[in-house]
Amino acid sequence: MGSNLLKCLAVLSLIAAGCGGAESSVDSVELKGVDETLATSESALTGCLGYKSMLSTTATSLNLRSGPATSYGIIAVMPQGSSVITWDNPSCDSGGWYRVYWGGVVGWASGTYLSVVTQTASVRNEAIARAEGGTKGAPGGVGFSYWWGHGAWKPNQAAGSCSGNCGSCTHTGSYGADCSGFLAKVWQVPSSNTNVATDSHPYGTIHFNVDSSQWSTISRDSLLKADALVYNDGSAGHTFVYESGDGWGNILAHECKGCAYGCVKNSRTATTAYHAIRHF
C-alpha cells in the first residue's frame, strides 16, 4: 500500500514538472524515491563484473542515485525488471553499490536489488580486435586504405588505395574507411552496424564530438582500452581509438589516419583540442 502511494506521488510530481511551463515549476519539484531499507542482504550482488554486463532490477522500484549511498540524490526511479548496464571496467561494488547506465543516464544502484543477466568481460578486447584484427579470427580495419565517407573491411581482400586531398580525394577498391567510419565499426554503433564487411558511414566527427545516447565525454585521465578521442572545430575533425598509454602523452592508437597513411596502429599524441569519449 505504502509503495503504491509513493509511486503515485512520484508520477504526480513528474506530471506537474512536465506541464508547468515555467522553469521555476520544474525546480520546485523534488523527485520522490522508494524505500531502500526493506530488503535483506542475503542475495545481494557483490564483487566485480565486466564492463557492459547486463543486470536486472529485482525490487518493485529501485532508486538510481548520484553516488554510492542513500545520502546521495535520486536521479531516477527504475521499475522492477529494468535492464541496466555496468559502467566501469571492471565494475566493482562500492560498499554494495554499482555504477550503472539506465535510461540515458549514469548513476549508482544498490547491489541488494540487482541480479546478473549476462556478463560481458571481453567487450573492450572485442572492439580492439575489430580495429586491429587477429583475436579470435576477428577481421580488423588496420591495414586497409583511407576511404573518405565510408567504412568497410574484410579479411584477405584488397586494401584499396587513396590519392589526393580529402574530401576531394580519389579511392580505388571496395574496402577502407575514414576515421569516423572506422570508429563506428569498432564500437558497432548504431547496433545494426555489426558487419564490418558492409559499407556504412552513419556518423561524422561532428556527431562524436557531442554527447549522445551512445557515448559520453570522460576525463582523459580515465581512458580505458577502446575508448576514443575526438575533435571537431567546425571546419575539420578527427577521431581515433585508444588502446593504451598516457591520455595526455604518448598513446597507442588505432585510426584511419588520412589518405597518405591509411588505417594504422601507431603511437601518437593528441592536442588539447581532443576530448575523450566512451561508448555506453
UniProtKB/TrEMBL annotation:
Gene3D superfamilies: endopeptidase domain like (from Nostoc punctiforme), SH3 Domains. Residues 51-118 form the SH3b domain. Signal peptide: none annotated. InterPro entries: SH3-like_bac-type (IPR003646). This is SH3 domain-containing protein. It comes from the Bacteria.
